Each structure stands twice: as C-alpha cells, then as structure tokens.
Records
---
Amino acid sequence: MPAREGTILVVEDDPDLLALEAEILRGLGYRVATAGDGLEALERAAADPPALILLDMRMPRMDGWQFAKAFRERYGDACPIVVVTAAEDARRRAAEVGAAGFLEKPFDLEEVFREVERHLNAAAGPHP
Amino acid sequence: MEKQRLGKHGLDIDAGGPQGPQFTPARIAVIYAVAGALWILFSDQLLEVLVPSGPLNAAIQTAKGWVFVAVSTALLLVLMRRQARQREAVAGQVRAVLDSIGDAVLVVDPDLRVVDGNRAALRLFGVSSKAELLGPLVDLAAASRMRLPDGSPILPKDFASVRALRGETVRRMPVVFRPGTDVEVAAEVTAAPVEDRTEGPVRFAVAVFRDVSEVRRLDDMRDEFLATAAHEFKTPLAVIKAYVQLLQRRSAPDAPALDVVNRQVDRLSRLVQQLLEVARFRVGGPDLRLAEYDLSKQVEEVLDRMRRAAGGHRLHLATAPSAAVRADRGRIEQVLVSLLDNALKFSPRGGDVTVAVLRGSGEAVVSVRDAGMGIPPERQERLFSRYYRAHEDDPDDRGGFGLGLDLAREIVSRHGGRVWFESEAGTGSTFFFSLPLAAEAPRASA
C-alpha cells in the first residue's frame, strides 16, 4: 500500500537519470512507473493511468513533443506534465507542449520535491 | 548585346554609350540649325558658280528647295536612329544588370500589376517565361503561395511593394513561398518607391526578394546541434548533481565534501551554458523575448538566490526604486548572475558586495560593487574581449572561460544599454549596466 495516492510516470532515455528520478520519487512515498521513450510511456500510461508525468524531451523512437501530443489526444488534459529539459529556454519548451511545469537540468532535489508536490496537491486537494 | 563599358566608378550607363558621342535632342537641333543656316547663306553663291543665270533659274530654285528638304530629312533620320540605338543599348545594359543580379527583382506599377522582373524572379516564383510573371501582383502572390513565415496569409495592402507604392521603404520583410513544388522558400523582401523626381508621384515600386532558405536551413541545423549538445552535457550533470544531493542527505560526515562536489557541478553547468550561449549569440543569435517587468524586483530575487551560495560574502542591496524595463528577463538574469559571480569570485578574502539600482534619465542603471582584488590598469582595456581573463596568471586565478563579460555586453547592447566599470587594483571594482526604461525602450527587438 503506497503512502501516497497516484502513480508518477517518469519518461527519460538516460537509464541512470531514470533510475535516479524514480528513486527520488519513491523516497517521497509515490508509486513510480518508468519508460525509456515516448512509445513505452504510452504503454505504461495505458496499463496504469498516471497522476503526474515527468517528461524528458529529447528521446529516441518517440520524443517528448510527440508523446505529449499523443497522450493528450487519448487522455485529454487531466494529467499534468512536468517537462525535464536541458534546453536554454525551459519555460518556452514547457509552453510548447502545454506542460504544467518544468525542471531544468541539472535540477536541485528541492525543486523536484516542490514541483511534484505542487501538481499532485493541486490535483488531489491539499494534504493534511 | 553590346560590350558594356566599365568606367572608373563601375558600370557607365549614362555617358555616351557604346557608339561615340550621344545625340541629345538639343544637339540634334543645333546640328540641324547650323546645317540649315549654312545652306541659306551659301547655297545661292554655290548655285551662281555652278549654273549660269538663265531661263531655268526658277526651276533650279524650286529643285534646291526640294534638295534641302531631302537632305535635312535624311540627316534627321540618321541622327534620330542613332539616338534610338543608343537608348536601346542603355536599356540593354540595364536589363543585363538586372538579370545578372542574384536576387529576384519585380517592378510593380500603381495598378498593382507586375510590369517587369528579372531572371532570378523567374526562378524564385517558379515560372518559365517572363509573360507568366507579368500581370496582377495578387495573382502572382497566390500562385506562389506567398505567406508570412508563421504561415498566416499577407493582405495585399501589406505587400512590401504595395507599401512602397504608398511611399514607404520596406526593409527585409520576411516571407515564405511554396512555388510549384512543396519546397518552402524563405525570402526577405526589400521594396522602395521609384519616383519621377524627388517628391514627385510614385511611378513604380521595385521589390527585391533575397532567397534566405539556405541561411535558414543552416540556422536550424545550428539550433539542432546546440540543443543536442545541451542535452548531452546536462544529462550527466543532472545525474551527478542529484546523486550528490541524495548522498548529502544520507551521510552527514561527508556533507562538506559533497558540498564542494555540488558547487563544482554548478560551475561546470554554468560553463557549459556559457559556451552554448556564446555559440548561439555569435552566429546571429536568438531573438530577445521582450516583456515589461520591474528590474529592481528581479535584482532582489537574484540576490536572494545567490545569498545562499555566497559563503563568507555579504550581499547587500543598497537602493532599488521600481524601474520598469522592457527586456528579456532570462538574458538580464544571466547578466546579473555573471556580474555577481565575478564580484564574489574576485573577492577571495570575503567582504561586502553591494548592488544598487538607480533611475537615470530614460534608463535604469544597476551597479555591482565589490571590495575585491580590483583590475590593474594595464588589463582594463581588454576586459570585455572574449576569452580574456584578467587574472589568468595571478596566484588566486579563479578559472572560467573569459566569456562572462563578453556575453553580458552583447546581451545588454542588444537591449540598447551598455556595460562599463570603475576599478582600482587592491581596493575593488564596480560594474555597471544600463537598460532603457520601458517607456523609452525600442519597440522592435534591439
């Protein structure tokens, strides 16, 4: 029984960073699903609808832009997406795919905590 | 085609043409008048010498009159044909010049009809003969599917040549075409009115289309490369940084060492960022995303963030009256961070760093003062040169690429401001930068 509601789907092609993001989020008590590219992420999302998605943009097979578009077409805007990007202008990147937030690589742990809490609390109502 | 004469100052279209002296209407009239006068003065004497007076005199006088008409007509014919040939030669030269221009040129009349175009225009608009080029401008624009770069249509009243017909000079208006095939052609249009004399009515507009597709393609390739480079560099940095922070939480005894690693990772990230930025800025650079905001508020925010990393230094904000600027927030933040970074880096023995925002006439000035090592006078001149590092050989060289100030100056000058400094070796430096206040800032990107 997870300590917190909802699965966070982490999409990242670098296996080390993927494992790390998963570790950070599990440490916060969330259930985490992982995917190495957009196609895999769509499969994971179908099997277990996520409450939040952390999305890398530059990935093989299906990149972040294509994934965000495909995901929205299937599931609408219900699930917030946080873009994790190395781009110079992360804010604009996030706006391009209609993301709810962004994390700039390299990020601070605090920023990750803040961003995740912000979206999951907003979606599920304030935690006690 | 006649041989073109290249004069000392380039192509010599007006003077003479290829066939000797030019026969202007005035010169033709003078030649005619002189010939006529000579005839009147001397023809009778000539006749008396040649023909003895007799009963045929009246007939001879009449014949003389006819001879005069015939000779003067022939003379006029010769002169006028010669002038016409010269005109044709000049027109041919102009045509040759027009056709040898690599950019497409269209001439549009006040009825918005294309009345002329050069060879490059045929290529650009994807037509095979000049006849297809001529006709209503709107038809040509529709056939070549002319659009703004964002894909939206252009109203005929906003066409560069139509604006030129209203007397305006349009410079480098970006458009795209899809003539024939689906290959998109990006072009910049420059159009100017052609007037009879200065202040006269506009007779034509000349529009020059420069094909910039290749430039655009290279821009895209560069952006793609820089994005890949950023991703490749920063992903490993992100992994290292996050693991270091995780380890810091778990292992208290190692925290100070991990703190150093964390700081060095941040430094490496900044260097990577700087290299990518310089690459981008130097090759034409990203457009500024201008928005109006309070510069003082931004200075406070940046100071707050940097206080945490400032170690033994104390960061002060002296004065900060609200100062609305129209600027690219991210870029200005870079300038602030860069100046504060330098102030901290070059004050190895600690001391205060004082930041102030001042409102001057039409501009806001931010100053960053440190009590650090200062810059020796002989190194001050080169301070803004790219890759120059004023403290390179000093015992306490702080590292870096020598890019920070170069980049700061580039960013600020693109906003219509400037960067300068005052410094004394041993007592410290003050760096300043100015930005136009919002009301005064240029509307277009600087």
Note: Chain B touches chain A at residues 227-228, 230-231, 233-243, 245-246, 249, 265-266, 269, 273, 276-277, 280, 286, 289, 330 (CB under 8 Å).
---
Amino acid sequence: METNGLKLHSKDNVATALDAMGKGSKAVVSGDDGRTETIELVEDIPFGFKFATQDISPGAPIIKYGELIGVASVAIKAGSLVHIHNVEGTRGRGDVPPQGAKA
Amino acid sequence: MKTFMGYPRPDGSAGARNWVLVLPVQRTANLVGASIGKLVEGVKVMLSPGEEGRTKRDRETIARTFVGLGMNPNVGGILLIAIEKKFSYPELAHEYFLNELRRSGKPVCAVVVAEVGGYYKALGEGVRLARELVNQVSKVHRQPCDIGKLTVGTKCGVSDATSGMVGNPVVGSMADQLIAQGGTYMFSETAEIIGAEHLLVKRTANPQVAEDLLEAVRVTEEKAKATGEDIRKINPIPSNIAAGITTLEEKSLGAIAKAGTTPIQGVLRYGERPPGKGLYFVDAWMSSLSLPLCFAAAGAQIVLYQAGGGDFPDPYPPMMAATSGIVSPLMFLTGNKHTFRKAQDNMDFDSSRALGGKVTVKQLGEELLAHIVDVASGTKTKMESLRHEDPVELYLEGPTL
C-alpha cells in the first residue's frame, strides 16, 4: 500500500498527511524507523495537515520531529485532525501566565 | 577546487553580479539617487529609510547596511550622494562612508549636493559619474573563482508542512556542502527559532555563541509577551496556519532544518558581515521585505527564499515577495509540488522530489548547490527578469522619537 502519511520521529504522536485524505479512509503512515502503521481517519485531513496517531489526553504534549510542538487543549482521538482547535502553543504566550507541558 | 564564474574584486572577494551601487546616505539625497537610477543602466539604488528621530542603535544599523551593501562582492563601484559634508548625525556622515567604502579598493565617487550647486546640478553630476563608473566597472570580466568565496543567506517563508519535511532540509544539506567547500552561509528569523533553540545551542562553536543565541531568543520572546497577545496570533502567520502549521514551536522546528548540521560560528546583528567562514545566525526580523537586504549587506551574493505556499490559491497564486537584496538576486525554491506547479514562473528550484523518497535530501542539496553556482556565474533567477521591487525595510528597532 502506498504511504500517505509521514511520522518524522518514532516518538511523535502525530503524522503529516502527504495527500488530502477523507474521513473513514485508512492512512498508511511510515516512520523514520521504517515502520509502517495504519490509522483510520475520523475526519477529513487536508494535504500537509496533521492527524493523531494515538489517543492524546488533554494537557498532554504534542510531539513532532521528536520534539514538543504544543499541548492538547482537549482530548484528541487517534485519526483526528490536530490543529489550532485542539492544540495550544507553550511559547511566546503574552496572553496567559507561563505554562508548560504536563508531560 | 570547484569554481564559479565570478567578478574578481580588489579585496579578494568575487561577485556574482557587477553593479554600480548608488547610495544616497541621507534621506534628503534620495531624490538625486532615485533619479540616477532611472537614467543610468547598470546601477542599483539603495534609498535611505530616513534617519531623523532614530536612536543611535538604529542609525548604526542604517550605516552598517549601507557600508555592507557597498562592500558586497556583487558591487563593482559605488556612487555616494550626500547633502553636505557635515549634514545629519555623525553615524551617517559623508566622510565615514567614503572612508569605509574606499577600504574595499573599489572605485568610489561622491556627489555633495551643497558643493556642486544644488539638486539640479547634483543630478547632472551624479548621472555623469554613475555612467563613468558603469563603463569602468564593465571592464571587469568573469573568471573562475573559488566556490568557497560564495556567501548565501536563506529566508524561509509562507511555510507549510513541506518546509520542515523537505524544503528546509534540502537547503540545509546545500549549506553543509557549501561550507565543506569553504563557503559561508547565514540563516536568521529569531522569532522562528523559539521552541527549537535547545537544538541549535548544542551546535554552537563555543559558549559565547550559545549565550548570544539564547539571549537573542530571550529578548525576542519577551517582546512577544509584552504585546499581551498569544504569539500564534502574530506568528505563525495566517498563511502558515491555513496550511496546517499549528504552533510557533512547530514552525521553528521545521525552520531550523535550513541551518544544516555544521557548528554555528557566531550570532550577527542585522547586516553585520560574518567575521569568518562557515555557518552564522543573524538576530533579525523574519520579514521578506527586510531579510534579503540584511543578507546582502552581510555579503551574500545570492539570497534564497525557501517557500512552502500550502495555502496559495489555485490557479492564480500571489506574486511572490519581490524584494531582493538590492544587489543580490533572490532565488525561490519550494518543497511543495503544488506550489512549484502553481508558481512556476517565479520558482527556480523544486525540492519536492525528496518527499517521494526517489531522490535523497543530500542529492537535492547537491543539485541546489550546482544551481546556485550557475546563478552565481550569471544565470538569471526568475525574479531577476522582473523590474519591480517592493519597498525594502531595514530592521530598525526604535523607539522613534
């Protein structure tokens, strides 16, 4: 099966869509370790957007490139779109007191 | 030794282009400089952004940028325009520029408006001198020059997911290969290393560089917080978010790939010339109106613009940012196959082939370096066939008083 999702680091809990993919379709995600996993998408994922490769709890770190890119603001189910509606940044937050990831 | 066909300069540097730079060093001299630019072929004009009411730090940035542009290897000769010998702030005095620029060994001429008899006479004298310089500079011909004399700066813009996955990694690989051959490479955009600075700091050449890098990030993040806004409302910019980038940290982690893997030798101010070879970080604003000029003032013969473009409309994408480094050509590339197709009249290089895994990032880095050597040898970038320039903006930090 052709790969249509890319996990940039084995620690990542999100993958990037290499094609636009529809709700209900199966994403074939390849990792930097050569492993492939299949994730059923629970919503449409546009090209270049991220989806969760596992369930993520509110406040848990979002990991891409093997590094922290933000924290989940709500529970995120595997196969869901991961974007500004369910992720908060942790840096340059002039709007809130300092906060970190609850790793 | 690998070579490119460049213009040898008296200071040992090698140009990719052969311009005469017209430099009105005070705002009130802009009229003369701009007019010469319209009449004389082979010149580039750097207009003054205006010096009045600016702090010493900002006046020094203006002066550094002017001198740096004149020292850029793509410049063969310089025409200074000043109002009076002792006009305006000391940092922007006629004598200062004359002395600094003469150190390049290049021909430098000057018109002082008050001495030649006013604006109309200064315009005539300026046209005469600019034409003389153009004819003189044209006698310098291209010859094989060490590729190690190349300096390249990269801005990444309209980032999307492909920027971090292939676009920036290909540029980073090119940077590694250029540096291995003795070249110099710069990256910048301090806001866009926030969240990735812990990775860059591990690569600094010495503890002072590490300290400078972290301080640059600290100051920029403090400025962001002082706005009272979530930085996500400012950067990542709307175009990034519309293309799937979620947080500044994510953008930064993708952005630093354009820095390759070699040690960071120093942290430079806007327009500051690197003191040695290798990789440098410039502490500056990310704007595409500002950064190409910064790199050119720091000595880059070629400026890369690594674009994502994931939210570009189809089939009519916007014209890409059209601000070059005044004397240094701007070259566009992208790791997004859709962007390359949509904006092919502006794009010089397609890195997207690395995504399918058929070509490696390193192979594309080699191809990109070969392409840069071609451009350094005279091949025009797509943007060079367009005469329009958006206004350039020096990175001036204020306050204005």
Note: The longest helix of chain B spans residues 161-180.
---
Amino acid sequence: MSHPLQVVITSLPYLLGGAVVTVGIVVGAMALGFFIGLPLAFVQVYGNIVLRKIAAFYVWFFRGIPVLVLLFLFYFGLFTLIDWNITAFWAAVLVLGMRGGAYQSQIFRGSILSIPSGQLKAARALGMTDLQAIFYIILPQTLRIALPGWSNEYSIVLKDSAIAFVLGTSEIMSRTHFVASRTYEQLAMYLTAGAIYFVLTWVGVHLLKRLENRLKIPGYTS
Amino acid sequence: MKKWMVFLMAISLLFCFSPGAMAKKKVYINGIDANFPPFSYVDKSGHPAGFDVEALNWIAHKMGFKVIHKPMDWDGIIPNLLAKKIDIIASGMSITPEREKVVNFTIPYWKIEQVFVVRKDSHLTVQDVLTGHKLLGVQRGTSEAEWLKKQKKKRGWNFTLRYYDSAPLAIVDLVNGRIDAAAMDDAPAADAVRKKPVKILGTFGMPPEKFGYAVRKQDKKLLETLNTGLRLLMKDPYWQHLIDKYHPGH
C-alpha cells in the first residue's frame, strides 16, 4: 500500500483536470443564470401582472425543487423525452444555470428595489422613456449593488456543481470518488477535493471583490 | 472579465468533444462504474482501466470499431444507456431478469458469486450476519441489494441493510466499525482484501450470477458484434493474460 500523500500527488493532475471541468460548469451556469436572472428581476419589478406571474412561477419552480431532482428530471426525463442528445456537461450547465437564474433574479430584484424610486421619476421628468431610464439609470446601479450577493451565489453554485457527478460529468467530485475507490485513501482524497474547492471559492470571491472595488462609485455607499 | 470567461468556456468546450469522434470507424461509448476495481476503474493517470475496459478494447480492435470509456455513477448507468448517452455497459454488470426487461445482454463472460466481507479480526459466521441483528452494507442498485431485501422477509432474516454508493465505501464503513458486514461480488471483495484489513466470510446462499455487456434493446447489430468479439476473446490467449493481470476471482 502506498503512502496517502503519494496517492494525492500522483492523482493531483487528474483532479485538477476535474477542476477545469468544474470551473467550466460554474462559469457557464453563472453566465446563463445572469442572462435569465437579470431580465426576470426587471420583469418582477416593472412588468405587468401576466409577466410577473410567469416570472414568479419560474422562480417558485426552480427554487422549490432540490438540484439533484432537477438534474435527473431534465437530463434523464425532459431532455430524453424531446430526444435532445445533450452531453452531461452541458446539461449540468443548463440546469444549474436555469436554477441560478431563479436565485440571481432575487438578488437583482433586491438591488432594483433598493434604488430610491425618486430617481425613476426624476428621469421621466427629464424626458427619458421608462426603458431609457431603466437602462441608463437603474441598471448600472443595480449591477454594482448586486455584486456582493452575486459573489455569494458563485460560491454556492461552485459547491452545488459537485452534484453533477451523478450525470457522469468528470468533474472534481467524481474523479475523487474514482481515485478513492481504487486506492482506499478516502480521508486523503476527500481532503484534497475539499482543498481544491476551497481554493476555487477563494479565488473567485477574491476576483469578484476586486471587481466590486473597481466599480464602486466614490462616496456612494449602498 | 469577459475575456477569461470566453477562454474558460473554450476550454470546457474542448472537454465535450471526445478525440475519437473525428475518426472514420464507428465509435461506441462504453459507460463504466469507475468505482468497481478490478473490473473497471481509473488508473493513476486518470485513464479508464480494468478487466472489462481492456477486454472491450481488444474486442473493439478485432471487430473494427472504436470505443471510448466514460466513467459514471452506477445509479445512473442504465438511464444513461437508455437515454443514448452511452452505447454499451461493460462494467461488471450481472445479468438479471429485471435488467433484461429493459436492456439486452451479451453472452455471459464471467461467473461471480456474492460474498459477505467482515473485518479481519471478526468472529462472525454467515449465519450470525443473517440472523444476529447485524448491520449489513450493500451497494445501492445492485442485484445483491435486491436479492437480500427480497429474501429477508421470506426467510425471516433480521439484518438491517445500509446502502452505499459503491462497494469500496461499504468496505471503508466496515473497517470503521459502522457496519458488521458487507455483501458484494467476490471480485471487488478480493480487491478489498488486498488493500484493507478485511476478509471474505463466504457465500450466503445467493445463486451465482453471470456478467454480460448490456446494450439497448434496439441495437441488435451491436449485440451481435459484441457477442462475436467476446467468443473470439475467450478463445484467445489474451483472455488468460487478462485474468492473470487482474485476478477477478478470489
């Protein structure tokens, strides 16, 4: 039997390959979640009753079902039903992205609501249309205010991505299982996986924090 | 920020296209439970390896097709086959009537028996495990899990089943002392004995099973190809070489 440290070192390149897959899933899911969540947030605040109901249903659906059930439901259920031969990787991106959209919409909704309504009225008084006011006045502030919450969402999606191994994606967690099964070095391997997730979380949150500082409006706190 | 996002997306895209996809030969994807040494696992460099993996590689070479081995979770392996994410399951799968309802199996290539595994210093007998109010670990979704659950009521056994994602995890919990025994195929049990302080207690009355490769019901041609390949392989000296290399028996 080889030393645990030796097992960790020899399997590290393989696990780091899994980290690249994990980062791919998370970046894809966060991007998709952004493009779903942002419009959804504006619809929930400014939309008419029908749009608001649709958005509310979307959020209710994706927030109410465990991510494991969502993955199985879409990958083996709905995607198979419509005969869509999507890879496990993209299915994970899609499902985590759609679910992330529901959560992100709530982050952005909170940000929009935190902007004083007087700004919209003032923009209208200056002759802007509602759409212009939202695009030029509300949106830039929304994104800045939402960044801390968004960074938190990143760390959640990163760790949730581990569940994608049930679909057969070859990310950190599944690779860790495989090595542990062959070597019986469970403690060393799961510690290593934890360390990789920890580093990824730290780096991501740190980068977003720097972005936050750069985009901060001097003297304007929120 | 956008630039590195695009970069990472590009990297992740690379992972989606398997290198063999461009070749002219027919490419089949074999789903393996990589938590099942010595039949299927990933080696030190992260490549799929094992008795089934090498056997199928040989068959693919002989029969003129390409095979890509895709490690995945055992729980989802038949759904993955039915959903056409993979084309073959060559990963120590027992031929059972339940599974035969949804998939087709090749000719059997390996006979296995299910055994109880206990800690090395244990004094338990098979009868103790069955009727001594013991905690018994099994891998979820396996034929032995099904059989033990069914027979328990019929025969008045009183063990409590604990379900695990893989046989090695059951072994770890056994060594930790959280369960009294684990039930599994003799091959992974023998692998565990080589690596952990456990011993094989013996069979517990479950009829021996046979391993076969599984394919979708409609893939009749592939089934024939695999059957022909298996027959050739089992007559070839390479078959004995594989057996000597992986010791799938105990």
Note: Chain B has two domains: 21-111+210-246, 114-207.
